[in-house]
Design brief:
about 80 residues, alpha+beta, YefM-like fold, 3-stranded mixed β-sheet, 4 helices
């Protein structure tokens, strides 16, 4: 799997879509952590599983003390 940072992925998006079209899976990282996948349509990825995984990740995440959603939005983290 090829991995790109979010800024690089944004600037090369059509290239990455082309790679996915040819069957490759592309990872996108943010702050060094894998946050998204661009996958070929034919992949065995079920939407329900993706949303379940997102919900599980959201439940495990904790908001740091003293940080508000507004702070995160202003920092561009949301």
């Amino acid at each position: 799997m090829k991995v790109f940072g979010v800024c690089q992925a944004r600037s090369k998006f059509s290239t990455l879509v082309g790679l996915a079209f040819r069957g490759q899976t592309i990872g996108v990282t943010r702050h060094g952590k894998l946050t998204a996948l661009i996958v070929p349509v034919g992949s065995q990825v079920r939407l329900e599983e993706i949303f379940r995984d997102m919900d599980e990740n959201r439940k495990r995440s904790k908001m740091p003390k003293g940080v508000t959603v507004k702070d995160l939005i202003e920092e561009g983290r949301i």
